[in-house]
Amino acid sequence: MADPPHRQRWLAVRECGDQQALVAIDSSGQITVLDDRFDFYSAAALSPDGKALAWVSWQLPDMPWDRSMLCLVRLGANGDVRDALVAEPPGGGSVQQPPSSMIASSGFSRITLLVAAVSGGSKSPLAALDRRN
To answer: Rounded to the nearest 5°, which phi and psi values hold at 62?
Structure first.
């Protein structure tokens, strides 16, 4: 995924052996690790203004459809990682983020909650769909 043009870098998931990391690769090929706290990274999305980055992560032994987290970081002017927010569905469960979007959905207790993550680091529910009936 391309970062804003003024940063002249690409964002990617790097896999080395059995470890993954979210990284930035600049035009000279230098790699900067943005996050390496989780076992897996997926569905990274950059906010339109380039000030926030969101992704879905999970840890072994869980699979992403069983338990995953929505992560959001603010990016400084030079692309350094600032305030990090990790959101898990209440009571566990899975979140899924559509590609190139700052909106994630989470299904838990047979209720789907759509959450919008905004660049200020907060999140707010957009809708809840009750699937219990």
So the answer is: -70, 150
Question: Which residue type sits at 96?
Answer: Q
DSSP one-letter string for 74-102: EE-TTS-EEEEEEE--TTS-EEE--TT-S
Residue-averaged pLDDT of the chain: 75
Cβ count within 10 A of residue 68: 27
How much is the average pLDDT of 100-107?
49
Residues 41-56 have a mean pLDDT of: 86
Can you tell me the distance from the alpha carbon of 111 to that of 74, in angstroms, rounded to the nearest whole number?
A: 29
pTM (2 d.p.): 0.69
Q: Domain residue spans in the chain?
A: 37-130
Beta bridge partners of 29: none
Rounded distance between C-alpha atoms, residue 100 and residue 105, angstroms: 14
- What is the Cα–Cα distance from 2 to 109, expressed in whole angstroms? 36
